[in-house]
Write a structure and sequence with these properties.
UDP-N-acetylmuramoyl-L-alanine:D-glutamate ligase, 2 domains, 503 residues, seven-stranded parallel β-sheet, alpha/beta, elongated, 41% helix, Rossmann fold
């Protein structure tokens, strides 16, 4: 599990380590430098560089202190030069100690005091290390720091950011135009939220997490945002028992499809049965010929347009009572009668059944809906825009925070299909860091709905089932791309690659 911190949560974790556990801040800085130096030597080897020269840019805050300490670790191995800005009198004790140590060891420490100093600066080294501002910074850079960023921006050198690229907001992920375009970011103690959302992934490059010599349990106390790693699948998906039957692995009811869109329902149902459901029942007015034979068909009464009629509610009631989870929406169209039926199902069963609502089914939900934590909604930004009556661009610019806010307001689980996808109940959130652009094709969301419905039916809490389902879905896409590339990836291929993920 990856633990992801906001800047405020990081400050709380630091404070606990220093003030409660008694680990001096200078020790944390030293451990950060030691861990970072090991990563840098690994990077040098991977990049095939031979005795590269380093140019460090340091501020006078603690991020600069990390830079001074790191330069000291590297100076016996490589040619190192430091440029710094700020005020020595305002340095923290640990930053000043490391600054003076670097000077005493003979590392050139050149203070940049004017725009002319920066203008005359020539960067000839192979590697730039950015330790100007760090986690406390934002996209609002001005003065000498901005001039330095412009100089770094045009340099062809390999760029390594310490904790965070300068010019990147580590809460929102929004970046200054001249934000350091890091090839690698070595961040301290835990991932920072802003490295992973909005502009963060593009600006941060490959991310390493440097240990500080204190237990990860400190991070775990404060983190409210997480991301799965592959091994988490086998810790969270319930193990199958030797003596068991299909009734032990979840009964999924899928209410989906129409005469026009039988494929969406088939993709959802096929994904459900292939991701481990004991029983999958597809209730629809039309059945696609590619529907797997293991899926049980439940014919419903059609409207004149071939969608699900409200008269089908009496047919559905018995199956709903028996179901461990319900998925509703793929391919149902926006027929008012069908949407009315979906609204009735949600309202009647929201407190007693776990329900995943997707695609056209989301039209049964509005900003004033009263839902429950049994309900999972899986909108993309356009669908969420319609539900909450906020411009799509505003959602895209603040996806993480909007998803959290509206999960609380609607009292449900929101899985927002964005990059990265966000799953949240309003308090805890999961980012899906797997996946690729090849998955942006028709039917991919229907597959996801089927996987989530199965994991819910298997007994996972809706927040975990949804976030884990998104991760499995994304891994299937990545496994496919490793073999065949992005251009040929289809929703059906995602289902075919589920066995590769869930072996």
């Amino acid at each position: 599990m990856k633990y992801i911190l906001t800047p405020d949560e990081m400050r709380q974790a630091d404070s606990l380590a220093i003030n409660h556990y008694g680990v001096p801040s200078i020790v944390l800085m030293e451990n950060a430098a030691r861990s970072s130096s090991m990563y840098i030597q690994q990077i040098i080897e991977e990049e095939g560089l031979i005795e590269p020269e380093f140019t460090f840019f340091c501020g006078s805050g603690n991020n600069g202190g990390d830079g001074f300490a790191l330069a000291r670790h590297l100076c016996g191995l490589y040619n190192v030069k430091i440029y710094w800005i700020g005020d020595e009198s305002k340095m923290s004790e640990e930053t000043r100690i490391n600054y003076l140590s670097a000077k005493n060891l003979g590392i050139p420490c050149i203070k940049l005091e004017s725009e002319e100093d920066v203008e005359q600066l020539e960067i000839v080294s192979e590697i730039i290390v950015d330790a100007l501002i760090g986690v406390g910074g934002s996209e609002n850079i001005r003065g000498l720091a901005l001039s330095i960023l412009k100089k770094i921006y045009n340099s062809p050198a390999l760029k390594i950011a310490i904790d965070s690229p300068t010019g990147l907001n580590t809460l929102t992920g929004k970046a200054n135009e001249f934000c350091v375009q890091a090839d690698y970011t070595i961040t301290m103690f835990a991932y920072k939220l802003g490295l992973l959302i909005n502009d963060g992934p593009e600006k941060s490059g490959e991310i390493y997490v440097a240990g500080l010599g204190v237990p990860n349990s400190i991070v775990e106390k404060f983190a409210r945002t997480f991301a799965y790693e592959y091994e988490d699948l086998f810790k969270l998906i319930p193990e199958r028992k030797r003596i068991s039957s299909k009734f032990d692995y979840g009964r999924v009811l899928i209410i989906a499809g129409s005469e026009r869109y039988p494929g969406a329902a088939a993709l959802c149902a096929n994904a459900s049965i292939k991701s481990g459901a004991g029983l999958t029942i597809l209730a629809s007015t039309s059945f696609h010929p590619m529907l797997l034979p293991e899926v049980i068909r439940l014919p419903l009464i059609p409207t004149a347009g071939g969608t699900i009629s409200e008269k089908s509610l009496s047919i559905l009631e018995e199956e709903i009572e028996k179901a461990d989870s319900i998925a509703i929406g793929p391919g149902v169209t926006d027929n008012p009668e069908t949407i009315s039926l979906i609204r009735q199902v949600i309202e009647r069963y929201k407190d007693s059944k776990k329900i995943v609502v997707d695609a056209d089914g989301l039209k049964a939900i509005s900003f004033d809906s009263v839902l429950s934590k049994n309900i999972v909604i899986t909108p993309h930004c356009g669908e969420l825009s319609r539900i909450i009556n906020i411009q799509r661009t505003e959602i895209e610019n603040n996806a993480y925070f909007v998803a959290k806010e509206w999960a609380s307001k609607l009292d449900c689980i929101v899985h927002l299909k964005y990059v990265p996808p966000i799953t949240t109940d309003g308090e805890s959130s999961y980012l899906c860091l797997a996946g690729n652009p090849g998955m942006a094709s028709g039917g991919s969301g229907d597959v996801l709905t089927g996987i989530i419905a199965t994991f819910v039916a298997r007994g996972l809490e809706p927040l975990i089932a949804t976030s884990l389902g998104a991760f499995v879905h994304a891994l299937a896409g990545d496994f496919y791309v490793e073999q065949y590339g992005m251009e040929t990836l289809t929703a059906s291929a995602l289902i075919d690659f589920l066995p590769e993920v869930l072996f």
